Amino acid sequence: MMNKISKILDYIIKTRKTYWFTAIAKTRARYARTTLGSLWLGLSTLVTVLCLGTVYGKVFNVSDFLQYFIYLGLGLVIWMPINESINYAPLVFSKNASSLKNSRIKPIFFVCQEWAFQVQSFMQAFLMVFSVLAIFSPILLLNLFYSIIHFLNLFLFIFWLKLIISLLGTKFTDLFQLLPAVTNLLFLLSPILYQKKNLGSYSFIADFNPIFQVLSLLRKSIIDGTLNIQLGLLVLLGNIFFIFISLFLYIKMEKKLVYYL
Amino acid sequence: MDQEIFLEKKDNDNIIQLKDVSLEIPLFDRSDFSLKNKLIKSVTGGVFKKGRNKSYVKALDSINLIVNRGDKIALIGHNGSGKTSFIRLISGIYAPTSGELKISVKVFPMIERSFIIEEELTGVDSAKAHYLMINNSLRGFQVYLEKIIEFSGLGDYIYLPLKTYSQGMSSRLMFSLLTAQNHECLALDEGLGTGDKGFYKKAQERLNGFLNNSGSLFIASHSSELLRRFCFRGIVFSGGRLIFDGDIEEALKFYDEQN
């Protein structure tokens, strides 16, 4: 099994330039007919932050609006790739059914392509939102250095999550219908719009929510400038473990996938 | 069937070996089996089977075959006889359900329009992705692209999204991408049939060059003329079984007699 996993990892590394390129091309194509191009990735998030921040700032009666905008802005921009990774994962293989049935390209290539697309979209949106927030709170720029391991954790997390959901979603097609409801629930139950303390006695919901843990560690490191290395390493180990689990599942299903399409 | 005699004659430098290989394609939608049964028979021609817990099409049944380096093999049979399944099997898209399959070369299939990228992207993007996939680098891509544009005859259409291409244009681009670089083994499923006459001639010339490079070739086609031109060996499929393996002329004669 380890031999097979190392072969897949080797394939992922060897084809990295191809899926990175096709992901860039996909972004370019998506915004080809717009004036601002891929700047929309960041702009749309900024508009969302402004609207939600103004409304929910009032609803939660926040005293420091700037801090709330930073909290909300970073939360939303980090939530975005997680949300899209979950919601679109079940369609990864069916969207590429023709290539999978008629060429030598391995199914995992398309998962990597989607992952690269999410990472690129996230980086563009993050840079724009972060730049605006850093104008009002320049200390954030320094804090970025504390967040490297948490960025890595976010990218690894959305990879294995996407892989597992795409495999299961191809076999169990109801998942595609179910997941948007789940992610909406997760979004509302995770302290993204509000502080964890607002959950009161229900704060354990956030503690047992792995998605929130990944999001929270990254956001906290940028806002507070705390490294949280122990937790970061723990999450990294968890991510590595789940990457192996997801690859194990992939190996089990790889040759059957084409029959589900 | 003179399969065993044929194999004895050419048992050196085997690149593909199939021993009693079968391929069953499972059907996961369990509703309305009777209608599906009819549909599958009409579309694939495979043998539909229903077990206690699963249903499947037996796309290939107990195939024994040895392919030698440099073989040019015609895949003959009516629609749904197993030709495309066979190409998918040797290309690594399908895994055999039973039997032993040994392959020592990379088989590059050309079955249908199957570009790596989405159809919103251009022909250039497609060529770039294809080139990167094979070479892991864009060094030399410009020369490659010029060759593709010239050979495919697409001209400025290469800069347009793939979704605007006609079926013939897509086939021309696909064929150009696949054959612009040397491959040890190509498997074409009616690959030359969709281009216009001018392109058909160019494609034939390119395949001639391929023949001289001693690459191995599989062509599935209903055109006897095409198969005679490029293949010296023919295998005939029927209902997922290999029913003849031998000289191309004998294979075509056998197929004609069967029908």
Helix content of chain B: 25-40%
Strand order of the largest sheet of chain B: 6-7-8-4-9-10
- Structural category of chain B is alpha/beta
Largest sheet of chain A: none
* Assembly type: heterodimer
Secondary-structure element order of chain B, as H and E? Answer: HEHEEEHEEHHHEHEHEEH
* C-alpha termini separation of chain A: 26 Å
Helical residue percent band of chain A? over 70%
Helix count of chain B equals 9
Give the class of chain A from helix and strand content and strand pairing. Answer: mainly alpha
* Overall mean pLDDT of chain B: 80
Low-confidence stretches of chain B: 1-11
What radius of gyration of chain A results from the CA coordinates?
Answer: 19 Å
- As a percent range, the share of strand residues of chain A is under 5%
What gross morphology of chain A would you assign? globular
Span of the ends, CA to CA of chain B: 16 Å
What characteristic shape of chain B results from the CA principal axes?
globular
Give the rounded overall mean pLDDT of chain A: 89
Descriptive account of the structure:
The complex is a heterodimer of chains A (261) and B (259). In chain A, 80% of the residues lie in helices and 0% in strands. Chain A is built from 13 helices and no strands. Chain A has helices at residues 2-14, 16-30, 39-59, 65-88, 92-95, 97-102, 107-136, 139-143, 148-171, 174-189, 204-207, 210-224, 229-260. In chain A, helix 2 (16-30) crosses helix 7 (107-136) and helix 9 (148-171) runs antiparallel to helix 12. The mean pLDDT of chain A is 89. Chain B has helices at residues 3-9, 33-43, 83-90, 123-135, 141-152, 167-179, 197-212, 224-230, 248-258; strands spanning 14-27, 47-50, 55-68, 72-76, 98-103, 107-110, 185-189, 216-220, 233-238, 241-247. In chain B, 42% of the residues are buried. In chain B, helix 5 (141-152) crosses helix 6. Chain B starts with a helix and ends with a helix. Mean pLDDT of chain B is 80; it is low at 1-11. With 259 residues, chain B is an alpha/beta fold. The A-B interface holds A 14-15, 17-18, 21-22, 25-26, 29-30, 32, 98-105, 171, 255-256, 258-260 and B 25-26, 28, 88, 91-95, 106-109, 111-118, 120-121, 125, 128-129, 132-133, 136-138, 161.
